[in-house]
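ugh ok fine here u go
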Amino acid sequence: MKEIEINNIKDFHNRLEYYRKTSWFKFRGQSDISWKLVPKAGRPPYSKVSDESLFFHWKRRAIAHLDKELKSDWELLAVAQHTGLPTRLLDWTHNPLVAAFFAASENENKDGVIYVYNPNTVIDNKTETPFALKDTKNKIGFHQPNSSSSRIINQLGYFSVHSEPALSLDDKSKNGQLEKIIIRKELKKELIFMLNQYGINYLTLFPDLEGLSKHLGWFAENYEFWD
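structure:
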């Protein structure tokens, strides 16, 4: 896997120019470089329980809280993912700035990373179900969700769908171009201030009360930064 090290804001902008002329690239930011590209349902302690079973029980109980127009399992699973249910989905985005936010917004004492992937396998959600890949090994497809939540809309969301929840997207399982942009921990704070100026922050990425509260908390923590 190709690795690109980012040491300053200029390096960051220069690297993004490489991805500007195509929409095929997908981006994912992680604030700890040691984390693997594994969905929540594949990580302990959630990996002890069937994610398909969890989703079945989620649908049964969540119906009272859901928009009745959400009908497909793809739409429902996307909502479940973005409200905290362990699933075999992993969040990605079309926007590298969104990925940069997630790479830099937490774990300030650790290097972050932006993964960049140009996938060859795209799932047709009209003919396939979210669990259609479960009978195959080491297969990861990509799914473009409908706009079933404001978070998906604002984050320009995409999902990788893993045939097994514990399957990591890496050099062995990839079917496409995969690389990583390393964000040094010393750069994280400056990067977050830059992204906020560009309109990428908790308030815009999480357009609800949680996002509002987190954004104002971040503003208070860094109050002395502004004149």
